[in-house]
């Protein structure tokens, strides 16, 4: 068999078939093609690449994020769920520009969150992201009316003059109308219900047309009916304005109403549920739901905890590549697809 890289066809002894040896030009072509591959998350509005956040207090280190990978496309409406302490709020604070990751990479609308200076960070928080907190009182200035609250971020982002002031007032009114709280335009927060305050807060978050709206437990202080209305408000701004929305929630019922739900476990994205409307042959529409395990860039997946418990999997598992899937077995169990005789020989 020839060993020169000249594009020849050879064959390995015993393999029974010819083997193509790539030419030098082909190899160069492959390297160039690999270099031209778009960067991870290049078309996503949010791209987190092996994100790590370690907190240290009293000599104890907590790894809140342990190499989290996540991409969010423009126009997505996504819920982040997970047990308490899994790292959801830490992730949201980083995306909001309120905290900085320890390692890894995070970009939002092309801004590198690791590399921003104080001035850029301030502009980022005002213009690139909008944030809705759980505490209704934290979202709004108590001494301003609904309309003034919505106009404030626009005012802070610059521009003086009557015409601009009028435009801001008009935009504030339009956003309040879209969210069904036009009647709160002249009311102060204490004259609004909790649900109205949160809808005004969504209008505030949208004021500067941010690339992403982030919300941390926005329904946490509300009863379930009002909470459902708030989710409906997020759906409205996603549908009508094309806003990209990421919501942290504990409410699985509500999380089930968005297109995409990502579960965070131990500081990593572990699984994802995607939903879409499917139409059957009679024209009947139904919601199709499919759960996926997340595969990170190093090829790691987190198996659902209930799968591990059901099969007693720990530390090590057997894996095998099948034509259309990968099999995973408990260490002590034989791969049913493997050749039994082969295993017998190995264990003898
Ligand atoms: N400022 C901090 N200092 C030290 N540890 C922190 C800090 N913030 C978060 N942590 C720790 O990081 C881990 C992740 O916390 P995080 O608040 O992100 O979780 P979460 O999933 O949002 O939880 P919850 O649903 O209860 O809000 C937890 O163990 C938490 O105690």
From TrEMBL:
Q: One Pfam family this chain carries?
A: ABC_tran
SMART domains from the UniProt entry: AAA
Family annotation (InterPro entries): AAA+_ATPase, ABC_transporter-like_ATP-bd, ABC_transporter-like_CS, ABC_transpr_LolD-like, MacB-like_ATP-bd, P-loop_NTPase, SpoVT-AbrB_dom
UniProt entry keywords in alphabetical sequence: ATP-binding, DNA-binding, Nucleotide-binding, Transport
Q: What GO molecular-function term can you cite, just one?
A: ATP binding
Q: What CDD domains does this protein's entry cite?
A: ABC_MJ0796_LolCDE_FtsE
Q: Read off the SUPFAM superfamilies from this record.
A: P-loop containing nucleoside triphosphate hydrolases
Q: Which residues form the SpoVT-AbrB domain?
A: 290-333
Note the PROSITE patterns from the entry.
Answer: ABC_TRANSPORTER_1, ABC_TRANSPORTER_2, SPOVT_ABRB
Limits of the ABC transporter domain: 49-291
Which Gene3D superfamilies does the UniProt record give?
Answer: P-loop containing nucleotide triphosphate hydrolases
Name the residue ranges with Gly residues bias.
8-17
Q: Looking at the record, which segments are called Disordered?
A: 1-23, 324-348
Q: What is this protein called?
A: ABC transporter ATP-binding protein
């Amino acid at each position: 068999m020839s060993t020169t890289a000249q594009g020849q066809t050879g064959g390995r002894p015993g393999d029974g078939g010819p083997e193509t040896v790539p030419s030098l030009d082909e190899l160069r072509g492959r390297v160039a093609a690999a270099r031209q591959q778009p960067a991870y998350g290049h078309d996503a509005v949010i791209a987190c690449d092996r994100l790590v956040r370690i907190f240290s207090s009293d000599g104890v280190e907590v790894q809140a994020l342990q190499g989290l990978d996540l991409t969010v496309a423009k126009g997505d409406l996504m819920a982040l769920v997970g047990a308490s302490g899994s790292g959801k709020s830490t992730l949201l604070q980083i995306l909001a520009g309120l905290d900085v990751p320890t390692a890894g990479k995070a970009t939002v609308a092309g801004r590198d969150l690791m590399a921003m200076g104080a001035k850029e960070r301030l502009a980022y928080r005002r213009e690139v992201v909008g944030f809705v907190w759980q505490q209704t009182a934290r979202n709004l200035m108590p001494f301003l009316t609904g309309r003034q609250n919505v106009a404030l971020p626009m005012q802070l982002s610059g521009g003086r003059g009557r015409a601009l002031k009028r435009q801001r007032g008009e935009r504030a009114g339009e956003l309040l109308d879209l969210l069904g709280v036009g009647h709160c335009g002249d009311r102060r927060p204490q004259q609004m219900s909790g649900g109205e305050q949160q809808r005004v807060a969504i209008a505030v978050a949208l004021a500067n047309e941010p690339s992403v709206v982030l919300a941390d437990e926005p329904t946490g202080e509300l009863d379930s009916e009002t909470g459902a209305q708030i989710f409906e408000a997020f759906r409205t701004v996603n549908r009508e304005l094309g806003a990209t929305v990421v919501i942290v929630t504990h409410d699985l019922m509500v999380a089930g109403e968005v297109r995409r739900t990502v579960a965070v476990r131990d500081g990593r994205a572990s699984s994802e549920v995607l939903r879409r409307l499917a139409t059957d042959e009679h024209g009947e529409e139904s919601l199709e739901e499919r759960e996926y395990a997340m595969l990170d860039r190093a090829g790691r997946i987190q198996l659902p905890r209930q799968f591990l418990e059901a099969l007693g999997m720990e530390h090590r598992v057997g894996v095998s590549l099948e034509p259309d899937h990968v099999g995973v077995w408990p260490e002590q169990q034989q791969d049913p697809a493997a050749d039994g005789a082969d295993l017998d020989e190995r264990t003898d």
